[in-house]
Specification:
220 residues; alpha+beta; 9-stranded antiparallel sheet
């Protein structure tokens, strides 16, 4: 019997908090039934006082990803919000995404999970993957188009057409992931501006994708 056959939906819980807070958050989530998490290091960006409303100014950040059934995510996120109070300035942000397929989690493989909550979402998450050094251009372009802030995460690419050879060794270029959470009505203009400025549609210039945000805390 598939151990996950009784689950009707899975969601990905994402939190952006100040550096050093992930340990207590992961521990708190585990106490409420979420057994695992992945933590990434990143940095927030802000260029004026309006962007500080997102608590994403120039400080080190931790991005926490946790996967769990929808009901468990909802209850844990509500408890985390009561504990951390995301609505207060500089306390971080939290949001969730629906998961449509799941593989490799304790021998659990599920397809055709919940696609969304069913209603029009108020926020979107824009992810832009570019070569290292281009993240600030993405942020500046998005800001001019209406975004209030972003989180930059260091990464590493592995595209076969991008590898360079140094002393007979393949070198995979460093990448930067820019994550922008924005209101639904601003998404189209931000995406269009980034596509034009970064020439995303040209080969090798990066990739960009947009996800629906089911629920969010700490966004103002």
């Amino acid at each position: 019997m598939n151990p996950c056959s009784d689950l009707t939906g899975q969601e990905l819980l994402c939190l952006v908090v100040n550096f050093g807070q992930s340990h207590k958050i992961v521990k708190f989530a585990k106490q409420h039934g979420i057994s695992g998490a992945t933590v990434f290091l990143g940095r927030g960006t802000a260029h004026n006082h309006l962007l500080e409303l997102l608590d994403l100014n120039e400080v080190r950040k931790e991005l926490i990803l946790m996967l769990a059934p929808t009901e468990l995510v909802d209850s844990t996120l509500a408890e985390l919000n009561r504990r951390i109070e995301f609505d207060k300035p500089r306390h971080g942000i939290a949001f969730t995404f629906s998961v449509s397929e799941l593989y490799g989690v304790r021998n659990c493989n599920i397809t055709n999970l919940n696609e969304s909550r069913g209603a029009e979402t108020m926020h979107k998450a824009i992810f832009v993957v570019v070569d290292k050094g281009n993240a600030e251009t993405v942020v500046d372009t998005a800001t001019a188009a209406g975004a209030r802030g972003a989180t930059i995460i260091n990464a590493r690419g592995s595209g076969i057409h991008e590898n360079q050879v140094l002393f007979a060794m393949a070198v995979e270029p460093e990448k930067e992931i820019v994550m922008i959470i924005t209101k639904h009505e601003h998404t189209e203009s931000i995406v269009a501006a980034i596509r034009e400025q970064l020439q995303i549609d040209a080969p090798g210039n990066g990739i960009m994708f947009v996800l629906d945000v089911n629920q969010a805390y700490g966004l103002r």
